Amino acid sequence: MPKFPFWVFILIAILYFTAVRVDTMDIDASQYAEISREMLKSGDYLHVFDRGNDYLDKPPFLFWASAASMKVFGVNNFGYKFPSVLFALLAIWATYKLAKNLYGEVTGRIAALALATCQGMFLMTNDIRCDTILMSCVITAIWLIHEWTINRKLLFLLAGCAAIALGMMTKGPIALMVPVFCFASDWLLKRQWRNFIQPAFIPGIIVIGLLLIPMSIGLYQQFDLHPEKIVNGKHGVSGLRFFYWTQSFGRITGESPWKNDVDISFLFVNMLWSFLPWIFLLIPALILNCIMLVRQKFRLLAGQEWLSTGGFLLTYLALGSSAYQLPHYIFVAFPLAAIIIARFLYQLIEEKKYRRLYNVMMPFQIVIIFAILLAALLLIVYVFPAGLLAIAVWLACFIFWLFLAFLKSLKGKILWLSATGMVIVNIFLTNYVYPELLHYQVGSEVGKYIHLHSIEPGDIGIYKMDDALMSINFYSQGSVAHIDTLTNLRNIKYILTTDKGINDLKQKGFGFQIEKQGLFFKVSELTPEFLNPKTRSTTTRNYYLAKFK
């Protein structure tokens, strides 16, 4: 298969950047955006606060990066999302470089394309959390350290360790553990015992330690020096212990207060959508790799590697053993999965291996992509009707996809049809479906109204609303308070509430006028009833921004 051009990735990058127009989604992304805004406003980059309260959950690097971006581009969607989109592009580049080192130029580009077009990557560049930067730092570290194993230039090792430190400052020790899983499994199966003890590791460890100093100072000052503070219902919580142990390893040992009691299959089940369309190629690739290893009696031959497969499997087992899991936790291992798939596709297309398997996978993959394209059509025709222009654009894209499918001279159709299908689907998700969906997010809708009309956020009270409303603080660019009763409203000039709250205001004789009203729904918890226009009204509720007379 000939090398395909890099302009393909430029088109994908443009699609990523169109996502910066989409509002942040409650809960996590909006909360992180608001923390970044508060950090920029206060100028205190060592201590992290959420609406004025001590925050001990995620490390600060995402907040540092987004706050710096907002200082340049303003407090808006672009300012918050821009650094993470850049890190996503870095992850694609690092995946390409690592796969190229392992298997050659063509496989490197296939791996980059697989990562760039999986559904999780499109989600990560839209609903910005810590995982985008974490994934990028981890795969960059693995690539750079692998470069060091090839040429032994210390600069590569030090740069890789710096990437590990940035990853740890983004989401904790998992950024160190994934590279350890990769190289330890690879060296063990190659019997490269000397690689485990290298003098060069000492300056690398020093680099990690030095870069972690600012974050550690901030944690110590904010929490360890103040045992009287209550964190997660406890006194005397150490910020240093929390980040370096409890938040990660404590979820396995049971020390962490976070638990949702899901089993080890949870992440795999969620990969069935988050790693579309490549998940159905990843499964046989992993099985074949494991069979190969068993047949070789757990010893790698010349030209083989276990860095990608071992790193992915061990990372999955570690994350899957946690007492608290969310679907996006496995995103950190997606670049490794992309390399596994790229090697498998190269074997199918170029080396003509596993022909029976290929004859099954090819039509199956086409059916999956065809179903996804039809789902996109259903979204713009029925769920959120977009009009004739959007349908015409979809039809043009679909005809192009069919053209590729029937183009006899196109080699590697299983790759191109899969990648093109996902790009087409996400053109519509990013530029139409997500904006339509977020019209039902009351926090961003009301927050933008507050800022546009120069209403002071401190003059607003939120009353009897069962919604996270994290986004209202970011978009109003201030802290909006929740009130439990309709007494002592001396500083409240506006109230954001529901039908029940409006009835309470009437019963107590308050005079008010409705400034803004609309329908709201928890958009991160989609249901079939909401997606069906005929039953949507049964799932949405009215909200009102009322001004007291």
Topology readout:
Blueprint: H1 7-18, H2 28-42, E1 49-50, E2 53-54, H3 61-73, H4 77-103, H5 105-116, H6 119-124, H7 131-151, H8 154-171, H9 174-190, H10 201-224, E3 230-231, E4 234-235, H11 239-246, H12 250-253, H13 266-274, H14 279-295, H15 307-320, H16 334-349, H17 355-383, H18 388-406, H19 413-437, H20 442-452, E5 460-463, H21 471-476, E6 481-483, E7 494-497, H22 499-507, E8 512-520, H23 528-531, E9 541-548
Parallel strand pairs: 5-6, 5-7
Antiparallel strand pairs: 1-2, 3-4, 7-9, 8-9
* Oligomeric state, counting identical vs distinct chains: single chain
Gyration radius from CA atoms, angstroms: 25 Å
Low-confidence stretches at least 5 residues in length (pLDDT < 50)? none
- Spatial order of the strands forming the largest sheet: 6-5-7-9-8
Tally of contiguous helical segments: 23
Overview of this structure, please?
It is a single chain. With 549 residues, this protein is an alpha/beta fold. It has helices at 7-18, 28-42, 61-73, 77-103, 105-116, 119-124, 131-151, 154-171, 174-190, 201-224, 239-246, 250-253, 266-274, 279-295, 307-320, 334-349, 355-383, 388-406, 413-437, 442-452, 471-476, 499-507, 528-531; strands spanning 49-50, 53-54, 230-231, 234-235, 460-463, 481-483, 494-497, 512-520, 541-548. A five-stranded mixed β-sheet has the order 6-5-7-9-8, with helices on both faces. Strands 1-2 form a two-stranded antiparallel sheet. Strands 3-4 form a two-stranded antiparallel sheet. α7 runs parallel beside α9 (174-190). The longest helix is centred in the C-terminal third of the chain and has 29 residues, at 355-383. The protein is globular and about 80 Å long. 44% of the residues are buried.
